[in-house]
Design a protein that fits this description.
heterodimer, A: about 190 residues, mainly alpha, Arc Repressor Mutant, subunit A, 2 domains, disordered N terminus, B: about 130 residues, about 75% helix
Chain lengths: ~190, ~130
């Protein structure tokens, strides 16, 4: 593929996302939260393809339900994260047996792609952080993702995860402490 | 004063999540930009609202109330002996009687044939038996 074709393709992809900043509330929401929703779905799904499907299904589900009922923009992120969680649980319930069997057979064979965009100058630090994040228990990782990259409040996270705000806050503190401990152990600054 | 955990939070904030694949993003945008077409979509948009469901239930109840007398009247068995009742009970019957007369004039029929022609229910039974 020639360089000009690559550039034009990349511009085409960017145009889809960049126009969103001037579009409707829903387009802006996808632009701002799309990556965060994908990250959250990846924490809960087995692979990236499933996670992308989940984000698509969840976002459109929220859009269909709330497109005409006067919902405001600040309420949307929590609803979208909630929908992602619900969609994942719904799918897992449907395919629980198959999922368990596949997990037992091939989880170690699946190479997990990076959770974050890598920058060359901070690659080592990022790799350390990502390893530490992956090592966290699922509940703590979920709260950390919703707080840092979903930018939700503890109250909103509590609603999404169906827990009390105190539990959520304590999980967040535990997650940060565990991360710090693991980074210190690995010698990452 | 910044604590070590604040510094860690800043470090985490600096990480940017990997991008949602462009195909998924494009599919969502296309789905949202697709114009709402057809009555089915309009119906679906309203169908989950309580007000709409109450109105629909009310309309169906009203239709049942208004329609039930007519329904019972039309289901009541018609006397086969009295041709005037047949004429009165169903708007279609006069034309049937007319055609029956025409047919009788064209080819003479027995009593059973006439009875069959007069009563759609008997006609149905005869057809079922065949």
């Amino acid at each position: 593929m020639t360089r000009s074709v690559t550039i034009s393709l990349w511009q085409g992809v960017n145009r889809v996302t960049d126009n969103a900043t001037n579009g409707t509330m829903w387009q802006r929401m996808l632009h701002q939260c799309g990556d965060g929703l994908f990250l959250y779905a990846r924490q809960l799904c087995r692979n990236d393809a499933d996670a992308a499907d989940v984000v698509q299904e969840a976002f459109l589900r929220v859009w269909r339900k709330h497109a005409n009922n006067g919902i405001t923009e600040p309420d949307l992120p929590a609803l979208c994260y909630s929908a992602v969680r619900f969609t994942v649980l719904d799918r897992q319930r449907q395919a629980a047996r198959r999922w368990r069997r596949e997990l037992a057979a091939g989880e170690s064979l699946y190479e997990q792609p990076a959770l974050f965009e890598t920058s060359l100058e901070r690659a080592e630090e990022q790799a350390g952080l990502e390893t530490a994040i992956r090592a966290l228990p699922v509940e703590q990782r979920e709260v950390l993702t919703l707080k840092i990259w979903g930018e939700l409040t503890f109250q909103q996270i509590a609603t999404v995860t169906n827990e009390s705000p105190n539990t959520v806050a304590s999980r967040y503190r535990l997650a940060l402490a565990a991360l710090r401990q693991q980074l210190a152990k690995a010698g990452t600054p | 004063m910044s604590t070590p955990l604040d510094a860690l939070e800043q470090q985490l904030n600096a990480l940017r999540p990997a991008r949602l694949p462009a195909t998924a993003r494009r599919s969502i945008l296309q789905e949202m930009q697709r114009p709402a077409t057809g009555h089915a979509r309009a119906f679906w948009q309203f169908a989950h609202r309580t007000g709409f469901q109450v109105a629909l239930a009310g309309a169906l109840s009203l239709a049942l109330l208004v329609g039930s007398p007519w329904l019972f009247r039309s289901l009541r068995p018609v006397s086969h002996d009295n041709p005037s009742m047949i004429v009165a009970s169903n708007g279609l019957v006069p034309s049937l009687v007319f055609w029956e007369t025409q047919l009788a004039a064209a080819c003479p029929m027995g009593e059973n044939t006439v009875a069959v022609l007069r009563s759609p229910s008997i006609l149905t039974n005869v057809q079922i038996r065949r």
